[in-house]
């Protein structure tokens, strides 16, 4: 850390213009056209969001369309096992909503990362570009 604090502005600029990670021996960083998985990354993000939206739509449709038909069965089960039915229903709702929230959160993070060349090797990304993602306002 003291080496960075004692560095001249030219040395700091050279550090920022360099790779975000020291490349392996024999590998030259490519900042202009790094090999990335950008298209595959975006495709995975979009498919994940569509599957998540489909699951939520089916969940809402099922509740709206079939809940009144299942009410009689739910009431008889509730009379036989009041605590078990309540706990399983609530637990199912919490698990479904939590898993959907995680998937949407993953999608948002993936979308933000896609601006910085997903799938690129860290030595193919300049240090100054890496910082803008990690410490964005």
Could you describe the 3D structure shown?
There is one protein chain. With 137 residues, the chain is an all-alpha fold. Helix content is 70%, strand content 0%. It contains five helices and no strands. It has helices spanning 2-5, 9-17, 38-80, 82-113, 127-134. Helix 3 runs antiparallel to helix 4 (82-113). The radius of gyration is 25 Å and the shape is elongated. The chain starts with a helix and ends with a helix. Residues 72-87 have low confidence and may be disordered. The chain crosses the membrane at residues 42-61. Keywords: Membrane, Transmembrane, Transmembrane helix.
Structural class: mainly alpha
How many strands in all?
0
Overall mean pLDDT: 70
Estimated radius of gyration: 25 Å
Individual helix count = 5
Largest sheet: none
Q: Helicity level, as a percent range? A: over 70%
N- and C-termini, Cα separation: 24 Å
| Share in β-strands | under 5%
Ranges where pLDDT stays below 50 over 5 or more residues in a row are: 72-87
Principal-axis shape: elongated
User: What is the element string, with H for helices and E for strands?
Assistant: HHHHH
State the gist of this model.
It contains 5 helices and no strands. It has 137 residues and is an all-alpha fold.
What brief labels describe this structure?
single chain; 137 residues; mainly alpha; 5 helices; elongated; transmembrane helix; membrane; transmembrane
């Amino acid at each position: 850390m003291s080496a960075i604090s004692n560095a001249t502005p030219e040395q700091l600029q050279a550090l920022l213009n360099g790779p975000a990670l020291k490349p392996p021996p024999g590998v030259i960083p490519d900042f202009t056209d790094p090999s990335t998985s950008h298209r595959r990354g975006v495709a995975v993000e979009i498919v994940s969001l569509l599957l998540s939206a489909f699951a939520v739509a089916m969940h809402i449709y099922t509740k709206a369309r079939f809940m009144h038909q299942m009410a009689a069965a739910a009431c008889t089960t509730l009379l036989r096992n009041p605590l078990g039915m309540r706990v399983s229903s609530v637990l199912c709702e919490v698990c479904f909503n939590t898993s959907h929230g995680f998937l949407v959160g993953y999608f948002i993070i993936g979308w933000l990362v896609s601006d910085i060349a997903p799938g690129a090797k860290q030595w193919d990304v300049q240090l100054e570009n890496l910082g803008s993602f990690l410490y964005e306002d």
